[in-house]
Design brief:
- This protein is mainly beta and 482 residues long.
- The protein has two domains: 151 residues, Sandwich (Jelly Rolls), CATH 2.60.120.560; 221 residues, Glycosyl hydrolase domain, family 43 (Tachylectin-2, Chain A, 5 Propeller).
- It is built from three helices and 36 strands.
- The strands form seven sheets. Strands 14, 16, 17, 18, 19, 20 and 24 form a seven-stranded mixed sheet that branches.
- The longest helix has 4 residues.
Length: 482
């Protein structure tokens, strides 16, 4: 989750005829015993950019605007990751949108007469315009306000797609903490016009993504990919409109018959330390033996250059659909430094957990792959001991455990060497994966589909970095073997 890039992706899937494929085709029994990951050769088949201010399956309000200076809908998100969009039909008066409750509001504004957009915070202490920016919008246009954690972003669509006008986080947080359930619980989606401006359609709901990254296939405990109705389930980090705290975690499906059909089906948030956060960069394991889902994620949701760690939780709730806010705990790993990018699999009856160790995040990030395992018969979070680590690298992450040709390997991504190292389970480097390496540090998420290997990954293509800064990446990339 630091600096990545990959582009160009997969074609030729129609020849697979994957409808009605049985589970035996996906890993395990379908593998040729002599296959080695060093023999695999990947090329890019598909590359595209998922972008939605409101996740399509998570729209909470879609209606014609009612007149009013501030229309409070009473509809609210469970986490501070929401969007309001308004069609502005004329610009004779200031327009507002955002979150509002009794005596408290977080609003984006646009005033055509003043020629500026702004961000306005109201608390019991009063109303403050925390930031403004010049803007020249002529009706009709789309107006949007997005909340990602405590960052508020105002955007406009003049017919060529959504573009940010301004964003602010620190001055918002100085006055209100939207991560606090007691605060967020008082706020609902709101919009209005401070005068005679005519508004059209209003939509609100959970924020989608400015891009995606960190794909990790949802899997069964033994490593088999989780597939339903011809769709592969995977988790991805949904890039927010800003840095790591503005991102959040989601579950997606990839249609095996048409890999350009990528659909978000669940939105996941996490409660810890009294707030709700968008922790991400993790994995979901379906543990059929114990009828549970195991979720592991990285604590990027409140990252402030003072450390990162792996967190976890178990649940019987169907986390592969809907909106969830789940309490989590720190996972006890055999390391004294920061950690992220967990990858969990039960290998030969013993839980193995790959992760990234990071002794420093400033003045520069330093990180390398590591592997731990629990005692035989123990649960995944008990008695983990270190099996190995590659301390010879310091820009290597994206750890993935995968079986190829009947043997298990740890795959990772080396941002310095621009390659994907392959390790055995003692963290001895065996070679590198033959696959394109683009921008950022793309993760080598290998999954066997029929008689081919696929590798969903991402790149470092930013969205509106001049306004939003680093963090709004990347493109979704799908590779496959020849």
């Amino acid at each position: 989750m630091t600096d990545f890039d990959r582009r160009d992706v997969l074609r030729a899937l129609t020849a697979l005829g994957v409808t009605g494929v049985t589970a035996s085709l996906f890993g395990g029994t379908a593998e040729a015993a002599g296959t080695s990951p060093l023999d695999l050769e990947f090329s890019v088949a598909e590359q595209f950019r998922p972008f939605d201010l409101i996740a399509p399956k998570f729209v909470q309000l879609d209606t014609a605007a009612r007149p009013g200076r501030l229309v409070k809908t009473g509809i609210r998100p469970k986490a501070p990751y929401g969007t309001v969009t308004v069609q502005v039909r004329d610009d004779r008066a200031p327009v507002v949108a955002g979150l509002a409750g009794d005596g408290v509001s977080v609003l984006g504004t646009y005033d055509a007469a003043a020629g500026q957009a702004g961000i306005e915070i109201t608390t019991p202490a009063g109303t403050t315009v925390v930031k403004t920016a010049p803007a020249d919008l002529r009706a009709p246009f789309g107006f949007a306000v997005v909340v990602n954690e405590n960052a508020v972003t105002v955007l406009a669509d003049r017919g060529t797609g959504w573009q940010p006008l301004l964003t602010e986080r620190d001055q918002v947080r100085a006055r209100i903490d939207l991560r606090d359930p007691a605060v967020l619980g008082r706020l609902g989606y709101a919009y209005g016009s401070r005068g005679p401006a005519r508004l059209g359609r209003v939509r609100a709901g959970y924020f989608g993504q400015a891009g995606v990254r960190d794909p990790h296939v949802v899997q069964h405990a033994d490593g088999r990919p989780y597939i339903r109705h011809g769709k592969l389930y995977l988790t991805m980090t949904n890039a927010g409109l800003g840095f790591f705290q503005q991102a959040h975690w989601a579950v997606w499906t990839l249609d095996l018959a048409d890999p350009t059909r990528l659909e978000q089906v669940a939105t996941l948030f996490f409660a810890r330390d009294g707030v709700v956060l968008g922790d991400h960069a993790g994995q979901i394991v379906r543990d059929d033996e114990h009828d549970r889902f195991i979720l592991l994620m990285s604590s990027w949701g409140d990252f402030a250059f003072t450390g990162v760690h792996v967190r976890h939780t178990v649940t019987r709730a169907d986390v592969l659909s809907g909106v969830h806010v789940l309490p989590t705990e720190q996972l006890a790993l055999p390391t004294t430094v920061s950690s992220w990018d967990p990858a969990l699999t039960k290998i030969d009856g013993r839980w193995h957990l790959a992760f990234v160790e990071s002794p420093a995040q400033q003045p520069a990030f330093v990180f390398h792959p590591a592997l731990a395992a629990a005692p035989r018969g123990a649960d995944y979070d008990h008695g983990l001991t270190l099996l190995g680590a590659d301390t010879s690298v310091d820009q290597t992450e994206g750890t993935i455990l995968q079986r190829v040709g009947g043997r298990w390997y740890l795959f990772a991504s080396d941002g310095d060497a621009r390659e994907y190292p392959i390790y055995d389970l003692k963290l001895r480097k065996l070679g590198t994966l033959n696959a394109p390496y683009g921008t950022n540090i793309p993760h080598p998420m290998l999954v066997r589909i029929g008689n081919r290997w696929w590798m969903p990954t991402f790149d470092g293509t930013q969205y509106a970095e001049d306004v939003l800064g680093y963090g709004g990446h990347g493109d979704f990339i799908l590779m496959q073997t020849h």
